[in-house]
Predict the structure.
Amino acid sequence: MKEPSCVVKYEGNKWEPHGIAAKIDVQRFVVAAMESITPPWRPIPSRLVARFLGTSLQALANYRVRGLGPETEPMRRGWGNRIYYRPDKIAEWLSGGKCSDWQFSALWLQRMGMALDVVSEDAVRERIAQLERVDNLFPAVNRLWRSFREVEAS
């Protein structure tokens, strides 16, 4: 398999995190996100995000309250105080916009052996849509993901 570039290659050395993101170990996050079986376009809980980033849950909450951290995902009403993040959006935040969400997803797809013929935003989004139509492809997270789809629909 050929090495990807942040159009499908991790160029963490070229990422220049600003502000709070400069304190995060980018390499640790990328390794954790790439080894996860959960696709980067699917939300993960804040406890797991804190572990991926090598920070405390309280520090992550402080980033969120101050508007300095990565973007959170909207939750369904009545689900308590659960906060979720998408790893591809975290990568975009860490890279300062140099690696967009679809590029990070393309990297994950390549690492999972689902290489694309042409690496473009449309091709990646089409592959994601194709994977989401396959039943039981990611059974461990499908129940949670359906809850997020309900939020998007409303």
Remarks:
- Strands lie at 44-45, 72-73, 84-85.
